[in-house]
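Weekly sync, protein design subgroup
Attendees: M.S., D.O., the rotation student, P.L. (late)

Item 1: inverse folding check
M.S. brought a backbone from last month's batch and wanted to see whether the design step gives back something sensible before we order anything. D.O. pointed out we never logged the input encoding, so this time it goes straight into the notes. Structure tokens as presented (286 positions):
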């Protein structure tokens, strides 16, 4: 047994030596030991929001706008497509913030391939409601449930909406959706409490339950409202604060010193389907 053990030890040492020799043969003759001092950063890039910079600026501009009469402010959004990484954090945060049911998405992110092989790249396009100055969804509503506020936000009165879906058909951007009354727990013994949490939309805290007295948004058209319940209380929309790439900006267009006004003044700005005359208030930097 002792002889076998010695033989095994000998073979292991021989194999180890052979392995080290083979590895050493591929190293350059003048190889030197890696220095132990701290390695400098290859790219000294600033944080997206150093000391809360851009977010802090937008929040300050939001507070400044709220001090003005509602008709003197105009909310707009700017999205930098070169910064969007397609993570869909904005989509998820919007669903969470508004407590949205299955099939209801206010801010989808579409993907498309741009270019011709071999020069092809993937581009992401976040698409909230554009809150148009001339919104096609407003005049087609037979009960005036969809309306434009003095601050530019296109809103829906859930108490008036009859679910005809004319507005969904009229929107050229596909920015509207419909609440069919689905739950994530459909097909299970009971609907869990998290599905019955009130939605903070429009500051109304509605619960999606059955019955006319509940004034539920079930059976209604639904859409992005720029997190109106948040901006009314001095907070930025959920999609802005959760954007990992720092690609989404929000503010008052009527403030000539605002960040959004500054970005809209660049030569990179585009708006989707401008030829329709809708005057969308969502701008893209391309």
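Designed sequence read out in the meeting:
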């Amino acid at each position: 047994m002792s002889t076998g053990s010695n033989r095994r030890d000998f073979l292991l040492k021989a194999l180890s030596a052979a392995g080290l020799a083979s590895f050493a043969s591929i190293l350059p003759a003048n190889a030197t030991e890696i220095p132990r001092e701290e390695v400098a950063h290859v790219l000294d890039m600033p944080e997206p929001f150093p000391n809360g910079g851009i977010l802090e600026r937008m929040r300050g501009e939001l507070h400044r706008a709220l001090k003005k009469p509602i008709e003197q402010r105009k909310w707009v959004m700017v999205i930098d497509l070169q910064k969007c990484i397609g993570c869909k954090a904005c989509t998820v945060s919007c669903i969470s913030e508004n407590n949205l049911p299955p099939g209801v998405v206010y801010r989808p992110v579409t993907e498309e391939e741009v270019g011709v092989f071999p020069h092809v790249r993937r581009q992401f396009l976040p698409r909230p409601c554009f809150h148009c100055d001339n919104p096609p969804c407003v005049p087609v509503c037979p009960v005036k449930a969809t309306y434009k506020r003095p601050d530019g936000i296109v809103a829906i009165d859930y108490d008036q909406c009859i679910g005809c879906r004319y507005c969904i058909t009229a929107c050229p951007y596909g920015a509207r959706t419909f609440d069919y009354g689905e739950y994530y727990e459909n097909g299970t013994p009971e609907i869990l409490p998290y599905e019955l949490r009130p939605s903070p939309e429009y500051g109304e805290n509605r619960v999606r339950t059955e019955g006319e007295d509940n004034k539920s948004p079930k059976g209604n058209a639904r859409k992005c409202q720029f997190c109106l319940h948040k901006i009314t209380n001095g907070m930025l929309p959920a999609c802005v604060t959760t954007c990992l790439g720092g690609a989404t900006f929000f503010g008052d267009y009527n403030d000539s010193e605002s960040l959004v006004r500054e970005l809209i003044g660049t030569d990179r700005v585009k708006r989707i389907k401008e030829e329709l005359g809708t005057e969308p208030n969502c701008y893209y930097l391309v």
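Discussion: Residues 52-285 form a domain with the Alpha-Beta Plaits fold (CATH 3.30.70.20). Residues 18-49 have pLDDT under 50 and may be disordered.
Action: P.L. to compare against the previous round before Friday.
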